Amino acid sequence: MTRSWLYVPGDRPDRIAKALAVDADVVIIDLEDAVKPDGKSAARLHAAAALAGDSRPQRWVRINAGAEGRRDLEALASAATRPEGLVLAKCESVAWITEVHWSLPGIAVAPLVETAVALRDLDAIVAAHGVTCCHLGEVDLLADLGGRLPGGQGLIDHARVRLVIACAAAGLAAPIGGVHLQIDDLESLTGTSTELAHLGFSGRAVIHPSHCAPVNAAFSASPAEVEWAREVLALLNGSEGAVRDPSGQMIDEAVARRARRILATLS
């Protein structure tokens, strides 16, 4: 299960090493916003070097769009070890996803939805070959739409719902939410992460190691939920007719599916 996706600047090998040592499910080595234009070449070298090693945590790379992205792909294609996947910054078209797969066949791809064009064409993007999940870039998307907080929260809420529906309809993993910018406000981080989990997200991106543990907890099933799921499936498996859970609720396929999803998060 991939709950916390920790971004780390690709031009900072010291920070990459620290990121790989914390409790993140995925480390995203960033070649885009976190790296200045004159640091891109060095960042590609550091990223390639960091891909080797143990399988935990997963190592992904966020690549640029356009010409810089093509240079990113060239560097990764020649690396001794491939990343487990690519986050495509400002991804707006199926054509770009196809080009990525020409460069790195079979690579897992996570489009980052952070523009109006991407949101408009979301159904086609999530259905593209090789896409395994989808990320929401809330800060950039809000800027592209001309909104601002707190009044513009409705735009973000709309985008979140669109992603959940599109990913489910395409048979993808549940989407990954955007970062929490207030580094020291862990209470707000926990609250907003819980909201995302209830909405149907499976995790969120983070920009500081201290955010990993709260995010992991928010997107994990509680002991009570696990116990409920096991009881529901045990009752369902042991009966041939209509079944009720201990609270008296009828157990139909929708309830059973929720129980299976809860237990699947334990793996």
From TrEMBL:
Reported cofactor(s): Mg(2+)
UniProt entry keywords in alphabetical sequence: Magnesium, Metal-binding
SUPFAM superfamilies hit by this protein: Phosphoenolpyruvate/pyruvate domain
Keyword Electron transport: no
Cited InterPro entries: Aldolase/citrate-lyase_domain (IPR005000), Citrate_lyase_beta/mcl1/mcl2 (IPR011206), Pyrv/PenolPyrv_kinase-like_dom (IPR015813), Pyrv_kinase-like_dom_sf (IPR040442)
One BP annotation, GO: oxaloacetate metabolic process
4Fe-4S in keyword set: no
UniProt domain HpcH/HpaI aldolase/citrate lyase: residue ranges: 3-209
GO molecular function terms attached to this record: catalytic activity; magnesium ion binding
Pfam families the record matches: HpcH_HpaI
Stored PANTHER family: HPCH_HPAI ALDOLASE_CITRATE LYASE DOMAIN-CONTAINING PROTEIN, LYASE BETA SUBUNIT, PUTATIVE (AFU_ORTHOLOGUE AFUA_4G13030)-RELATED
Protein name: Unannotated protein
Taxonomic source organism: freshwater metagenome
